[in-house]
Amino acid sequence: MIKLDQKAEILMKYFRENMSQRAIAKEVKIDRITVRKYKKYMRLKVKNPAAAGIIQG
């Protein structure tokens, strides 16, 4: 099971550091599908990531 801090790290690397799903998966040592799942969940949950403070813009 993935921990909450790992989930936060995945989302920060994707949205703030603009890392690819593959690079994040390799760095965090998890499957690419897991990265995709969390990214998709966040996009559905937060309609405007910039307004939520997830990404700068």
List keywords for this structure.
57 residues, mainly alpha, globular
General description of the model:
It is globular, with a radius of gyration of 11 Å. The model has no long low-confidence stretch (mean pLDDT 85). 9% of the residues are buried. It has one domain (4-45). α1 (4-15) runs antiparallel to α2, α1 (4-15) crosses α3 (32-45) and α2 crosses α3. The chain is mostly helical and 57 residues long. The termini are far apart. Helix content is 60%, strand content 0%. The longest helix is centred in the C-terminal third of the chain and has 14 residues, at 32-45. It has helices spanning 4-15, 21-28, 32-45. The chain contains three helices and no strands.
SSE diagram, text form:
Blueprint: H1 4-15, H2 21-28, H3 32-45
Could you tell me the mean pLDDT? 85
Order of helices and strands: HHH
Q: Enumerate the spans where pLDDT stays under 50 for 5 or more consecutive residues.
A: none
Give the biggest sheet: none
What characteristic shape results from the CA principal axes? Answer: globular
What Rg, in angstroms, do the CA atoms define?
Answer: 11 Å
Structural class from helices and strands? mainly alpha
Estimated share of beta-strand residues: under 5%
Number of DSSP strand runs:
0
Helix content: 55-70%
Number of helix segments? 3
Briefly summarize what is shown.
The chain is mainly α. The chain has three helices and no strands. The chain has one domain (4-45).
